[in-house]
Amino acid sequence: QVQLVESGGGSVQAGGSLRLSCAASGYTYCMGWFRQVPGKEREGVAGILWRSGRTYYVDSAKDRFTISQDGTQNTLYLQMNSLKPEDTATYYCAAMRNSDGYCARFRSSEYQLWGQGTQVTVSS
Question: Which pLDDT tens digit goes with each residue over 20-32?
Fold first, then answer.
């Protein structure tokens, strides 16, 4: 099984940037970034097919966030630019092992492994 460890969270002012990293080991079909605020369900942000590199984004992340991978190092990244206060959340790296799943769905139940989360706080 893969193990996921996120890093790169922090506090920034609106308009700033952060790059999140997720170190993974083992095979995975798809990896994604999710975020969650207290009292709400986790929501998808971006996903990537590990083998092909095809990427997917939710509307709120398009044109601001970029998901990428370093296959050699088995590392997943999320570059976040033009951050807004509404981006404040705990961000999680997740791995999907079942190819019947679909990255673009951003369905939490289709991801089997999760990191511990890294906090992103954007102040106005």
Answer: 999 987 778 999 9
